[in-house]
Fold these 2 entries.
Entry 1:
Amino acid sequence: MSPAARSSTATKRLIVLFGPSGAGKSTLLKRLFKEYPNEFGFSVSHTTRQPRPGEVDGREYNFVTRDQFETAIANNEFIEYAQFSGNYYGTSVKAVKDALAKHPRCILDIDMQGVKSIKKTDLDASYVFVSPPSLAVLEERLRNRKTDSEDSIRKRLEAARAEIEFGNQLGSHDIKIVNDNLDEAYKKLSDFIFSKP
Ligand SMILES: Nc1ncnc2c1ncn2[C@@H]1O[C@H](COP(=O)(O)OP(=O)(O)OP(=O)(O)O)[C@@H](O)[C@H]1O
């Protein structure tokens, strides 16, 4: 990308990281948030699960009823949503806008369906495709991570093909970062994010 194109996209404050499971998105973000603890806002997700002791509505989650959640789905208010253990969880467009209003920058870590739905909203974002060096390396990293069952790894690898194909399309991203060497990938990410004040 030319320096001019790079700086024009980097002025946008919403940064969207996507890429297959195991590409290294969480690893890169963890490092970024550690180095810049006050720079980034987080959108507060909606959930239908009950608050746990100490959780505050609007802080950990926006706690809503099933009816409220399903109405919001019908009104296209979510960038992405899913059900886990019988409860809905989702990221709303409004939650992202609220986070952006309070912080200089906001980062989302989502999948390609989420990317497609953000592109249909009026949110102005910079898209970062985090790619593994190869499918073989991705598989090795998922196995070494030791967080998933064999079945879950197989599903993640199946989904990875479509994520990678989507990410490699020119229009899908502003920058593609191949996460081979972690230090180099991290430098590319932080340079991209901070190339404009
Ligand atoms: N450059 C790298 N070199 C070697 N290992 C890496 C590199 N980047 C990440 N890893 C390791 O690969 C594994 C997958 O990384 P990570 O969990 O950050 O992926 P992810 O994209 O966030 O996945 P998910 O979408 O499932 O949350 C982790 O065990 C991490 O430590």
Entry 2:
Amino acid sequence: MSTLLEVSGVSVTFDGFRAINNLSIAIGEPELRAVIGPNGAGKTTFMDIVTGKTKPDEGRVIWGERSVNLLKYSESQIAKMGIGRKFQKPTVFEDQSVRDNLAMALANKRGPFSVLVWRASDRDRARIEELAEEVGLSARLDDSAGILSHGQKQWLEIGMLLAQDPRLLLVDEPAAGMTPSEREHTTDLLKRAAKTRAVMVIEHDMEFIRRLDCRVTCLHEGAVLAEGSLDHVTKNQQVIDVYLGR
Ligand SMILES: Nc1ncnc2c1ncn2[C@@H]1O[C@H](COP(=O)(O)OP(=O)(O)OP(=O)(O)O)[C@@H](O)[C@H]1O
């Protein structure tokens, strides 16, 4: 496993408040990583920095084998380099079918204008079926996305992100609002996706994280408080004091 993303010594201050404080964190390729921590620990801001939405005051964010300095690039350039982000709320096109949503995501990979003129080739059609299979929506391909359950919409959006072939997928609280069986399906899906890429998941649900069965990073006050296996992290007294014991 080689290092794909390396964030080092990064700090961000909002109106005098240090939300990220000399944070260093790295992820390999492939790797599945869970990011936990109390409210306000800086988890979302960390993802904002990686995706270029927030520029830090200091520190380095280095990407890929060519050690590209991500801080020099815009959000859309970073997305094109292969960093996909799934926000908490699903954003699918409700009036379009599952198939069309996936088709649009495939077309979008080739640039914003290709969506307008794009016609699916046989290969694209096969890829759409493959993506639907991967996220467990094969039986729903011709249904409108609007009638899917909350969990299914989340899977569709993950499928749309996978259509773009990201090398790093950032996922914010996927388990929120899901039924227990949807959660189980989601852990399987993310584990599978992380076999060939880096996947970082922010989550508060400890059962969900246990099922992910991966390395865990606990953030607190904008820095790494503990990192390692879930058992290692959850036994850490500071993690218990600031997060688990609350
Ligand atoms: N744009 C902003 N302006 C001012 N303060 C901000 C801004 N964005 C984040 N913060 C503050 O930075 C801190 C870290 O916030 P962040 O959202 O990254 O935490 P989090 O770990 O994702 O929390 P949660 O689990 O509640 O989502 C918080 O105290 C938050 O209020």
